[in-house]
Amino acid sequence: MGLVPTMGALHRGHMSLVDEAARHADVVAVSIFVNPTQFGANEDLDQYPRTLDADAEACRQAGVGILFAPGREAMYPEGEETRVRVSATAHDLCGVHRPEHFEGVATIVTKLLTLAGPCVAVFGKKDYQQWRVIERFVTDLFLPVQVVGAPIVRERDGLALSSRNVYLSADERVRALALSRALSAAIGAHRSGERNAEALRSLVRRAIEPAFDSIDYITTADPRSVVPIDGEVGDEALLAVAAHIGSTRLIDNVVLGVDDPPIADVSS
Ligand code: AMP
Fold this sequence. Notes:
Structural class: alpha/beta
Bound molecules: adenosine monophosphate
Number of strands: 8
Largest sheet: 5 strands, parallel
Order of helices and strands: EHEHEHHHEHEHHEEE
């Protein structure tokens, strides 16, 4: 079995994980659960899009064998008090701005892996740090599952698909493109030999500051450990961003030296 854990409002990004799981497994299972413990007190748990009927249809059409959409009480029954916490990998980037987030993620994913018992579980590199956190606890807890990371699926104009994109107004949707353009420009600079972490980060900052309302972080990091790098980055480096447009928080990333630019021609 190949498991694809999601929070629903399924889009092509999620369905690419289903396709990836089908390459590794005979039966694909999708879970849909908007996990309350990974949302902070002032975050969008209540507003988070819930489209279960459409999601079920998309799963049916994609040949998903099992759809698991439990209620809150099933995953957090009365009396539960156990959490899974990852230290260094979860410490920086989103860990700084969403202090309880990865504990919620690690806890729910551990429960889902334990319940489903898949051979393979597929996660998107859209949530790059999440993927590395999951790899970490799966290794540390000796969970018998192979963790697969799948590439980011984007719109043609570069915007990374996200269930949260529905929050964006038409104007905000246009402004959001600054992010993938900035990451493309950073790939260009890295390819031209730029290795100074601060120079790469400021290039991104200058490009997104006019379009975004606030920036949580622009971080260069080791692509394996997700530990931030200052000074010089290597031939391969994670460049990850979280920033807000209005009340919508968007994240995106590239691995410099590995990924192709989200937008082929950044001058157009
Ligand atoms: P979510 O429903 O947002 O919790 O995401 C469920 C899974 O889908 C996670 O492993 C995400 O990283 C992955 N995912 C979400 N958006 C994308 C995308 N645009 N491309 C690839 N994977 C994605």
